[in-house]
Batch of 4 targets.
Target 1
Amino acid sequence: MSANNEQTNKKKVDKRNSEVLETSKVENDYNKFSKEALTQYGAAEENDDYVPTPKGAKEKFFNFCDKFGDLFVLNLLFIITSIPIFTIGASFTAMYSVTLKMVENKEGVARKQYIKYFKSNFKAATKVWLINLIFLALLYYLFATTVGVVGTAANVKVGIVGFGMLLLTFELPMVFPLIARYENTTWNYIKNAMLICVSKLGLWFRIFFLWVFLPIMYYFRPALMYYTWYFWILINVSAICYFTSISIMKYFHKLEENQAKKENESADEESDSEEKIED
């Protein structure tokens, strides 16, 4: 009887040992696979917290389709909300609010986001837009009074019109992205937009080029407008806003990083001065 018990106990021990060996083997295989995965995706082998998330071709394709669909919806919303003319500023601000987030991959549902930012920025954007609209109307009036007129007064008016258009050229590309990103006063929006464009001519040129490229092509090849006009209704405006947002977002990130550094330095100086006072 005792022999049978010893044999039974031996079988249980052997079974337990085999289970432990299988478990350790599985853990070793898992660790080996994890290290191989880390090495494959360029991470250090000792970095245990790294989780590789490579994007496959299908995922990239679906992301592209999502963005294309969002831009299509945004363009239609922009056309609809810009019909009253005086709301164009709010429409551009809402568009940039969404496309700037798209660049950061922080966008939500395009339709809901657009309507949300259109409402929240309506007052600030409309003030800026109406000022620009009135200024543009004055420039047009001055130019209209010089048609067919020769003399010093006409030349002065033409010079004023040219200078005014130059100011608009350096203000409009950045003013609505600023409203979309930051809170400020009306005149500070206009002033800061001009200062940024003048100080960052490369950024200004990229934005300006994207907006004027197609109109210039239409001027030299009017037939192109006949074949491509419907793209402005479908996606052109939102696509231009998105591609300009890529450059604008890079500048905003640098601006915010520099501001954060200055705030940290000032905070450190204040803490040092407080410590000296306490000593």
Note: The chain is about 85% helix and 0% strand.
Target 2
Amino acid sequence: MMPIVLRFLERILCLALLGLSHGALAAPADEPLVFVVHPFDTPSRLYQRFRPLCNYLQEVVGRPVSLRVASTYEEQIQHIAEGKADLTYIGPTPYIRAHDNYAPVRLLAAEAEGGRVFYQSVIVVRRDSPIRSLADIRRRTMAFGADKSFSSFYIPRLMLQNAGVQLSDLKNYAYLGRHERVALAVLHRDFDAGGLRLEIAQQYLDRGLRIVARSDPLPPHAIVARPGLPEPIAQAVRAALLAPNARGREAFRAMGEDVSFVPISDSDYSLAREVVRKLQ
């Protein structure tokens, strides 16, 4: 009988220890963490891209993780800064606005692709367009994404400015929100040119878009935690991003063929702050 009793007690002790070690992650177990993303692509594509990541993090923290797509960049900023969301995938400009103007949101890890911790913006035209350089966009129409988007407004605007083209030199311009809308508006001849993220533009090259110019490497998107997120949860998410298991690596592939996550610090966004200050 003693061996049976001892084994029973050992199991109880193990369960108790597990409960202590994971209690901060799992309590309250029925209250989901909220993961919000900005609307840089269609909602269906964003759900396909980020749902596997949320499922992976759900396993890590032992609590449901609910995915939400913000209706605007400003909504994303407010949700993560005000604690309406617990985690977010965020670009440079929204991160700066949330961190500097609202509350000290916390960087957990930066997105890398193919080992490169950066991404690029592009300015596109139709394949049959006479536009061959950025200077040719003067006195033509230009589509941007959201007015708070680093990759579909600030950087395309800086690229034009460096080519001697100011917003006042354009015949007309507009903010269309999602990057996909920029691509489609150019394809449909609503605008002569558009600024958006490279990876979104590449999806439309075989449909008739042409890239006129690419930006220099830009500060990465990152996973950020709200102020006050319990430390055990923040540390567990950070560890799961930086050292993923097989399920994690599979979830990352849904975000991109070669996506991984690397350490990041606030100082890595100094360039983004300089660009925003220059153009405001």
Note: Confidence is low (pLDDT under 50) at residues 1-27.
Target 3
Amino acid sequence: MPHDTSSEWSEAGGPSFPPLPIREGTPPPEDTPPPPMVDGPEAARGMSPLLGLSAPGDGYLAGPPPKITSWHRFARVFFGRKVVLVGMVVLVLLILMAIFAPLLAPYPPNKLWTSTYALAQPSLSHWLGTDQLGRDTLSRIIYGARVSLVIGLVVVFISAVIGGLLGLLAGYYRWANPPIMRIMDALMAFPMILLLMGIAALLGGGMRNVIIALSVGMTPLYVRVMCGMVLQQKENDYVLALRSTGAGHPRILFTHVLPNCIQPFIVLVTMQLGAVILRSE
């Protein structure tokens, strides 16, 4: 008859159960090295002396976990795509070509050859041929990269800064939204090409006037995008919590709202760089 342990009680008042049998394992061989010990600061922090664990059996290594920043995450995703790497290499080559144009161009960009070289076919002396005036096409492309990059970078910078600030004001302050957005709507009512042609006709030719015309035409897009993101962010709980603690509006706007809107805005800026270069031509 099996022994009923539920009827036995210990002196402390609880049930008494027989001890479970312990199965003896195979002893380690004699030549097995001892496990590594943890001394010094690790032992002072309560680390286990065996294998550097913070507690027996928890499975975590000693020391703090590796810190992964947003830059490491961005670099891992960015450099892990071959298409992005190819595009970056091409962009770097174009920038280097624009910087070292006097060293790479075989001829001056405005040098006129004789009429026999007008509209010449590609040859060893003119790799891409010549135009109707006899100017070397390859040299003009290399020097033209300078003008295109300067116009594109300056226009994108000016329109992004002005449009970003106006969008912040229009999205955060109610009194600033109607006048700013109505002006942007009036500018966007015209087709981009007609608007640029009208501004260029009023200002005249030249690189400076082209930059002004393109900056005015590109600003409404940045204003509307930034205004929409600020309207979404200012309704979040962290903005209400900051207001309840007495934080000022400039601090909330530029310290907390702007960092949460800047990443999509940067993506838009980089995408519009190529469009500005094409429109400048």
Note: Confidence is low (pLDDT under 50) at residues 41-61.
Target 4
Amino acid sequence: MNLNRKLTKEEEFVVNELSKCRKNPVFFLEKYCKVITDKPVPQPFILYDFQKTKCIQSWLKYDRQIIVKGRQTGVSTVVAGYALWRMIFEEYFLTLAVAYDQIAAANIIAKIQLMIDNIPNFILPKQTIKNKLSVGFANGSEALALAHGSRKGRSFSPKLLIFDEAGFIDGLEKLYIASSPGLSKTKGQLIAISTPNGYGNWYANTYFSAPENGFYSEKIMWYEMAERDKAWEAKERQRLGDRAFSQEYECLAGDTFITVKEKETSEIKQISLSEFYEQL
């Protein structure tokens, strides 16, 4: 083989594209990944601005991030793409996706596999593992889906640990403690995402204790998706009711405290959101 020969145009293209993808996850996701939309076939993954700034850019900077989000903002899909990017361009990169049950955790794997199925071969390492609960490549990188359970975290040393809908995972504090030594060993990253689900659980305590606890926090609201306007909001409020809309889209749980002013006495006080709606 003549190592000094000039590359063909096709070879130059491959080298340049691989370099761009390796350096820039947004470029990789938008040019080579596809996702499920309302269209009949998978579509190119065009990221919203908040998905670039509050998700990708933050994940590149912080090793512990916790996100509170409105429903259907695509964050789980973005974290699946981010995991895949790291799996392709880093050897022996282990991702663990944990959710409140195995079906929910497997959904992250399904998102990753859909992207793999639509990426050209010159980008991908050879795929060696493909099933509902795991995907893997010949470079040693792998992603696994796990249901909640504190003992499961002790068996692995992931480089990326994903808690999906973390506010709904029972016993998450024990799992976090169990998985921490593995993350420390690999200098790994933890990303926790969820809609709110009350107070007193690991997810809520961690979110409201940031950044003093070492976590970087972000909030993603429904209106950060460009197609969601006042007309969309009115329709969803009518369909769900104000209370459910507040929890599902405005990142407010029923026991979230809000400040109100009594109409008759002008007294300022704090009451829970659930108490507020009971008085309406």
Note: The two ends are 79 Å apart (CA to CA).
